[in-house]
Design a protein that fits this description.
Length: 106
């Protein structure tokens, strides 16, 4: 068994969740925050059989879009000028696959 931990844009969370559930996966969603942009994202935890890992990742990837987000540049800090922003590309999904030593549902 594996634990799939996927960090995705919150705008994609509804669609990813629906498609995972429809495919029969059990899902826990956690509200999370990216350390770099300090913007909200959504972390999915899904316990899956080894043979279902690729299907799960495919569903997550298919419904997670890449997007650009503005990022403030601190050049103007302390000066009386408009803040300068640049853009970073975020997502589709950041996925970790972890080995599960034990799974107990008590
Ligand atoms: P954030 O940490 O807010 O990062 C948002 C986006 O900013 C990243 O998109 C990446 O394009 C950029 N970025 C992050 N750190 C950077 C840096 N030091 N220098 C330049 N650009 C940087 P993604 O790579 O798609 O990551 C989206 C979110 O997934 C991240 O939000 C974070 O919450 C999570 N994440 C990504 N890689 C991770 C990792 N190795 N461990 C834990 N969480 C991770």
């Amino acid at each position: 068994m594996k634990l799939i931990l996927a960090i995705i844009n919150s705008d994609d969370a509804y669609s990813v969740n629906n498609h995972l559930i429809k495919a029969g996966f059990l899902v826990t969603k956690i509200s999370s925050t990216g350390g770099f942009l300090t913007k909200g994202n959504t972390t999915f935890l899904t316990g899956v059989k080894d043979e279902d890992v690729e299907t799960c990742i495919e569903i997550i990837g298919k419904h997670s879009k890449k997007r650009t987000q503005p990022m403030p540049v601190d050049l103007a800090y302390g000066q009386n000028v408009a803040p300068v922003t640049t853009e970073v590309t975020v997502g589709g999904a950041t996925v970790f696959v972890l080995n599960v030593e034990q799974f107990r549902h008590l």
